[in-house]
Amino acid sequence: MTTVRLPLFPLNSVLFPGLVLPLNIFEERYRAMMRELLKTPESEPRRFAVVAIRDGHEVAPSAPGMPDQTALPERGPTAGFGDDPMGAFHSVGCIADAATIRERDNGTFEVLATGTTRVRLLSVDASGQFLTAELEELPEERGDEAGALAEGVLRAFRQYQKRLAGARERSLSTGADLPDEPAVVSYLVAAAMMLDTPSKQRLLQAPDIASRLRDELKLLRAETAIIRSLPSLPAAELTRGPTSLN
Fold it and tell me: Please, which domain of life does this record's source organism belong to (predicted)?
């Protein structure tokens, strides 16, 4: 079992391998994390782990809130996550490699990272300025019939895109050809579908690529059928969901 200890960045969203993650860092605990990562030479990866929040708040309250207006806001690495950070997070996340960490004049940071490897959360350490975690790297098993499933998912995904574009009353934009490597397909489609966080999390932690593709095929067919039965809606209605402040 290969384990690694990395800074931990909880979000209200799921990061998949190969996907780009832009972040606007303003909380002090994560600013401290970025300052620490900047100590790593540019020739080496500046890595941290992203996990989806199961129970808690991405951004800690910064002012007294309801019902007690005199209560002091939470501070420290576990603010917003309760007394048990392990229980507040989903158990499978993704390592992010920060290609760009730029500090602004006001001390906040602009970060551009890319998901690389799935990891399982083993323990969380809250003794420092920011959370760190002991993580187990998860193998990328192919599973049975991954190639054929990837072809089916791509066909279903194109239909899903067409239906979605029609519901938005927009034309489908033409872009580069979609990849056909099963692992890449599984993560690209998982990230592109309009699903809630628990559904995306289930796709991230699928036991192998083929299982993820099978689940995506079912979801794509179900979602396409739902969109087909809907009247035309403004795009904002179809994409409405929680917005990450980071």
Answer: Bacteria
**Paired sense of beta strands 92-103 and 47-52, if any:** antiparallel
Does pLDDT of 128 surpass 70? yes
For residue 61, pLDDT beyond 60: no
For residue 182, CA distances in Å to 138, 146, 203, 230 come to 17, 6, 14, 31
pLDDT in tens, 39-55: 999 899 999 999 999 98
What are the residue ranges spanned by the domains of the chain? 3-56+80-137, 146-229
pTM of the model: 0.83
SS3 per-residue string spanning the chain: CCEEEEEEEEECCCCCCCCEEEEEECCHHHHHHHHHHCCCCCCCCCEEEEEEECCCCCCCCCCCCCCCCCCCCCCCCCCCCCCCHHHHECCEEEEEEEEEEEECCCCCEEEEEEEEEEEEEEEEECCCCCCEEEEEECCCCCCCCHHHHHHHHHHHHHHHHHHHHHHCCCCCCCCCCCCCCHHHHHHHHHHHCCCCHHHHHHHHCCCCHHHHHHHHHHHHHHHHHHHHHCCCCCHHHHHCCCCCCC
**Domain 3-56+80-137 CATH assignment equals 3.40.50.720:** no
Q: Please state which CATH class domain 146-229 belongs to.
A: mainly alpha
Res 3: pLDDT? 94
